[in-house]
Write a structure and sequence with these properties.
Largest sheet: none
Number of strands: 0
Oligomer: single chain
Length: 76
């Protein structure tokens, strides 16, 4: 019985590991952007005007959804 081993099989284990891993760099960038987004959200919530506008917009969206749901179920 003979086994055929290609050159690819030998090179796989002997190659050095690259110093820069593309996947980890992308993950690091995503984490950094998430921290930046969280910082912006906290800073915006600390501002009184921004908080009022956010609450107003969310209330408006909730009212529109409630109106559409009431129309769907025949409440008005």
């Amino acid at each position: 019985m003979t086994a055929i081993m290609t050159d690819f099989d030998f090179k796989r284990g002997s190659e050095p590991v690259p110093e820069k891993w593309e996947g980890l760099a992308e993950l690091d960038r995503a984490l950094a952007e998430n921290r930046l987004t969280e910082y912006r959200a906290r800073k915006a919530w600390a501002d009184p005007w921004s908080r009022r506008i956010t609450i107003g917009v969310l209330t408006l969206i909730a009212c529109v959804l409630a109106f559409l749901a009431g129309g769907t179920f025949g409440l008005w």
